[in-house]
Structure formats: structure tokens, C-alpha cells
Design a protein that fits this description.
Oligomer: single chain
CATH class: Alpha Beta
Number of strands: 5
Strand content: 5-15%
Number of helices: 7
Helix content: 40-55%
Distance between the termini: 12 Å
Structural class: alpha/beta
Largest sheet: 5 strands, parallel
Length: 139
Amino acid sequence: MNEFFIFDTNTLLSAVFNQNSKPGLALKAARISGTLLVSDEIIAEYILVFSREKFSKWLSLETRINFIENIINYALPVQVTENVAMCRDPKDDKYLSLALASQANCIVTGDVDLLILHPFKNIPILNAADFLLSIKAKH
């Protein structure tokens, strides 16, 4: 059974900066055991954030763009039909909207504004460390 996961932008940023960090390992585990999901709005945020000049002192723009293009190219795009407005940070609602539209198995995030909603409509919202534990428990 293929599982479907949503990774927020900051978790992916942490993964690109350190592939052996909890977010980096969570991303590897998610890609092995399932499929990442994206929406148009999330893709736009990934590209915007990964292109920010402030990250150039750690990783080249080319490395960051290659990383996020790889994520996008291998993710399953989902059309969001209903926008959810439940998060105390409205910018995070796009992750909840995608989760509902796709019946995702999990949202992976370090964002407290999302984590406090765990579980959201029976969809777990986990940080990278807890996601790794949940994957390990299943396999």
C-alpha cells in the first residue's frame, strides 16, 4: 500500500541543508515508503523560499533549485478543491487543504502552528523525529 505524505517548506529546507538531520532522514524514509504530495500553492512556496538569496551563504542557488525541482518532479500533484481555514497562521492552511483533498497519511512539519492541530481530521501531523518513529513502527 502506497502512503502519501506532505512535507512543509521548512522541513524540506532542513533536509537539503543536512541530509542526516531528522528532517533529512524523514524525507528519505517518506520517499522509500510512499509518495510526497504537492499542490500548486505549495509548489509556489517551495520555489519562492528555496530561491531566497539569504540561503546562498550555505548552499548555492543551483543546489537548492535542483533539490526542490527533484521533490516537485517526483511528487504527486493534487488539485485542492476546498480551502481550509483552521490554522492560527493562515499561511499554513495550504498544508491542511492539501491533506484533506488527498486524504494524506501524514503531514511532516516542525511548525508549532500545525503541530498543535495533531491529528487533523484523523490525519497525523508529526515532526520529523516522530514521523521516523511511526515509519519504523510500521515496517
